[in-house]
Amino acid sequence: MKSKPARGDFCVIEALFNRTKKLPEHRQFPVCLSAAFPLSYLCRIFKKHLNKTPTEFINDIRIANAKLALEYTNRSILQICEEVGFDNTSHFYHLFKKDTGLSPKAFRELSSGSQY
């Protein structure tokens, strides 16, 4: 029989999610959260409940924000990359392509063509 997840685990995940909404102010792993909880604990509950690390979780949110910006704004890809919290453009391109199967430019072209 599976045990129910601890409510406290979800509170920690929710706290990290709420802090990542303020990107790009929190470019790195939120220091205030990692100071309140040991990193090993955070990694363990993220893997247990979300099947990803806290960094993967934050990067997923950043990529989702980048997709919205590419689709609904005309800001440059470099500007969007920086705005969503990536310091390394090639890392952004790599994660974006891994998530969508497209480069940011191809994603923008495809999504702008589908709006009309």
From TrEMBL:
Top-level taxon of origin = Bacteria
One GO molecular function term of this record is: sequence-specific DNA binding
Q: Name one Pfam family in it.
A: HTH_18
Q: Which UniProt keywords apply?
A: DNA-binding, Transcription, Transcription regulation
InterPro entries on file: Homeodomain-like_sf, HTH_AraC, HTH_AraC-typ_CS, Tscrpt_reg_AraC-type_HTH
Gene3D superfamilies documented for this protein: Homeodomain-like
> What PROSITE patterns does the record point to?
HTH_ARAC_FAMILY_1, HTH_ARAC_FAMILY_2
Which parts of the sequence belong to the HTH araC/xylS-type domain?
40-110
Q: What is this protein called?
A: HTH araC/xylS-type domain-containing protein
